[in-house]
UniProtKB/TrEMBL annotation:
The keyword Translocase does not apply. Pfam families: NIR_SIR_ferr. SUPFAM superfamilies: Nitrite and sulphite reductase 4Fe-4S domain-like, Nitrite/Sulfite reductase N-terminal domain-like. Residues 338-357 are annotated as: Disordered. This is Cobalamin biosynthesis protein CobG.
Length: 357
């Protein structure tokens, strides 16, 4: 994907997990071919920023050698799968992933942004993650398939789950879902069959950071040097990216307290949006993340601080959006970075204690 600081190359970990060797190699690739920063995305993927067009083919070869890209383009192009991060080998989540992955090329030609969630771990934790087809557990512990945007789902068994997914995907295409692009948008105009809305999903578990094995990345940005140091210090055997800008370490010792990673689930930097800004992006004329850190502590969110009007970090509405322009900021209320601002030409100093925009 094109961004202001070069290409952004997304890495989708298989089964939502990277081995320690893959993590260390990815850190090296981020330094060699990118800006030295990895993004943790809303879909629990990782991205290498700042890649040049010339380096892109070489980087893809390296990712392929690390077994981070599926050899089948039909699988790779639709491998948007959110996985409960507490899965264990052979459990329901693991088995569903093993059944889903090879069936992706056989599904109808869905829009590329559509995705799947396997929210079948010990507690429901993926409700806020971006997905269109959701395998979940109902209030009695039974397996269901729920269309995103519907309050209830269809009771299935492990043996019928994939066939039910095919039927839902075909219904989406046959009823004009491609024009909507996403399931929840489509359901605003189309009605699911009643039989697919009979089982209520279990309640979502509260967001916590239960112990040092789960850490957060402020603004979703992970410094490759810091991540490499963390992996070596803990001796972790694997890393599992999570939604909410969190990641789980598997194995090893508990990490020592470090300011570079977030250890408080209530830290506003986990929900505030800010691009790298100047001087890291040539499109930006303002610094972003230091200001976003200060404002996030005093402003109710969502807050978005963008280095330019492209709004790469959050190209959608926010309660408060600050857009960089010629070294100053324009203020947009309840809008997107490109919307008409209510105030213009604000200096960074004037925004330090902004409380009532």
């Amino acid at each position: 994907m094109e961004s202001g600081d070069g290409l952004v190359v997304r890495v989708r970990p298989f089964r939502g997990e990277l081995s320690a060797a893959q993590v260390l190699a990815l850190c090296g690739l981020a330094r060699r071919y990118g800006s030295g920063t990895l993004d943790l995305t809303s879909r629990a993927n990782l991205q290498i920023r700042g890649v040049t067009a010339e380096d892109h083919p070489v980087l893809l070869e390296a990712l392929g050698a690390l077994e981070l890209i599926d050899a089948d383009p039909g699988v790779e192009g639709h491998r948007n799968i959110l996985v409960a991060s507490d899965w264990r080998p052979g459990d329901l989540t693991d088995r569903l992933y093993g059944a889903l992955l090879p069936t992706l090329p056989a599904l109808p030609d869905l829009p590329e942004k559509m995705g799947f969630a396997l929210d079948t771990g010990a507690a429901a934790c993926l409700r806020e993650g971006s997905a269109d087809f959701r395998f979940e557990l109902d209030t009695e512990g039974g397996l269901i398939l729920r269309a995103d945007g519907a309050d209830a789902g269809r009771a299935v068994t492990e043996g019928t789950a994939i066939q039910a997914l095919h039927e839902m995907a075909e219904w989406f295409i046959d009823t004009g879902g491609r024009e909507a692009g996403r399931m929840a948008r489509h359901l605003r105009k189309a009605s699911l069959p009643d039989a697919w809305q009979q089982a209520a999903p279990r309640a979502t578990a509260p967001a916590t950071l239960p112990g040092g094995a789960i850490l957060g990345a402020a603004f979703g940005a992970i410094d490759a040097d810091a991540l490499e140091a963390l992996m070596r210090q803990t001796g972790a055997t694997a890393l599992r990216p999570m939604i909410g800008r969190l990641f789980r370490l598997r194995g090893g010792v508990e990490p020592r307290a470090a300011d570079v990673f977030v250890q408080d689930a209530g830290d506003p930097r986990l929900s505030t949006h800010a691009c790298p800004g100047a001087p890291f992006c040539p499109q930006a004329t303002v610094e972003t993340r230091a200001l976003a850190t200060r404002l996030a502590a005093i402003l109710p969110g969502p807050l978005h601080v963008s280095g330019c009007a492209k709004g790469c970090a959050h190209p959608r509405l926010a309660r408060v959006t600050l857009t960089g322009r010629d070294g100053r900021f324009d203020l947009v209320k309840n809008g997107a970075p490109w919307d008409t601002p209510s105030r213009t030409g604000l200096s960074p100093e004037a925004l330090i204690d902004l409380k009532d925009p």
